């Protein structure tokens, strides 16, 4: 019987950080400049603050430079667009992100469209999404890239496997389904994408060799929805009050599903950490001008 594997994002991210750090050192020895990641943060959302702080810490650990641009929650859209234009023109900044969500009075699409695709290390710009769909070199959205790197760290093969992706968001589900079906080292899987309008979702999830949950519903995937021996990747991050305390809960009923699966990622401590690795990898690629 195959032993159960916890797909530990802490272990995987530590290994990938060391790989990235060594590439930074090698680049500096070849007189390449130090990668520089900038972040634009609006307002004082605790989750966003924590996430950006984590990204700054990651940069320090791998040898990147980092810059944080803060704006109040009532900032006008024009001021943000001016800041983005300045970042686009700064030759010392290789890549940057606009931390989401933005306040309701800001047109999020207009902001994302203003980002230079060559610095769009979140991989959200339509040009990068199009290049990804065509299997061209580009910036892959950070969370799907993090999932791929997690699978690679644990030597989980996707070729010839049936992958079922639950959720069709533009940030995770849709790009995930495209990437895993492509003819490359990360893909070659047969992919089924199910969503909120799919009838009898469990009929599909029970056929999955690899099940990726990204639907945004706490404990949506239960043990009876999982094929025995399947690999389960939980992308969900749901903040709930449990016994008077705020807790992060995934889209998978972890305690029960782990009794059925051959491997599973936890929440927290799984894909969230790998999303940050995806961002670092995109910034490194931006620095080395590989696209």
Describe the structure.
The protein is of the alpha/beta class and 291 residues long. The chain has 2 domains: 30-130, Leucine Dehydrogenase, chain A, domain 1 (Rossmann fold); 142-273, NAD(P)-binding Rossmann-like Domain (Rossmann fold), CATH 3.40.50.720. The protein is built from 10 helices and 11 strands. It has helices spanning 9-29, 46-62, 77-89, 108-114, 126-133, 142-153, 173-181, 201-205, 254-257, 271-287, and strands at 5-6, 36-42, 65-71, 95-98, 162-166, 190-194, 210-213, 231-234, 238-242, 245-249, 263-264. The strands form 3 sheets. It has a 6-stranded parallel β-sheet. Strands 3-2-4 form a 3-stranded parallel β-sheet, with helices on one face. Helix 6 crosses helix 10 (271-287). It is globular, with a radius of gyration of 19 Å. The mean pLDDT is 94.
Write the layout of secondary structure elements.
Elements: E1 5-6, H1 9-29, E2 36-42, H2 46-62, E3 65-71, H3 77-89, E4 95-98, H4 108-114, H5 126-133, H6 142-153, E5 162-166, H7 173-181, E6 190-194, H8 201-205, E7 210-213, E8 231-234, E9 238-242, E10 245-249, H9 254-257, E11 263-264, H10 271-287
Parallel strand pairs: 1-11, 2-3, 2-4, 5-6, 5-7, 7-8, 8-11
Antiparallel strand pairs: 9-10
């Amino acid at each position: 019987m195959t032993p159960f594997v916890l797909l530990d994002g802490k272990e995987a991210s530590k290994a990938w950080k060391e790989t990235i750090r060594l590439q930074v050192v090698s680049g500096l020895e070849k007189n390449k400049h130090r990668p520089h990641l900038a972040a634009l943060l609006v307002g004082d959302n605790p989750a966003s603050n924590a996430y950006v702080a984590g990204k700054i810490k990651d940069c320090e650990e791998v040898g990147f430079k980092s810059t944080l641009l803060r704006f109040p929650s009532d900032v006008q859209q024009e001021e943000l667009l001016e800041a983005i234009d300045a970042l686009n023109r700064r030759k010392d900044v290789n890549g940057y992100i606009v931390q989401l969500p933005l306040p309701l009075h800001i047109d999020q699409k207009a902001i994302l469209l203003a980002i230079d695709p060559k610095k769009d290390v979140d991989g959200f710009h339509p040009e990068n999404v199009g290049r990804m769909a065509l299997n061209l070199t580009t910036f892959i959205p950070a969370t799907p890239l993090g999932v791929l790197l997690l699978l690679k760290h644990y030597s989980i093969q996707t070729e010839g496997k049936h992958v079922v992706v639950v959720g069709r968001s533009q940030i995770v589900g849709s790009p995930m389904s495209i990437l895993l079906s492509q003819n490359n080292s990360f893909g070659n899987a047969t992919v089924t994408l199910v969503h909120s309008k799919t009838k009898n979702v469990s009929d599909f999830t029970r056929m999955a060799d690899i099940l990726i949950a990204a639907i945004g519903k706490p404990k949506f995937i239960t043990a009876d929805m999982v094929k025995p021996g399947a690999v389960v990747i939980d992308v969900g991050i749901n903040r709930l009050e449990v016994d008077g305390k705020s807790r992060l809960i995934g889209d998978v009923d972890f305690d029960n599903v782990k009794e059925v699966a051959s491997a599973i990622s936890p929440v927290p401590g799984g894909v969230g950490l790998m999303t940050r690795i995806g961002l670092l990898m995109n910034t490194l690629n931006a620095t080395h001008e590989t696209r």
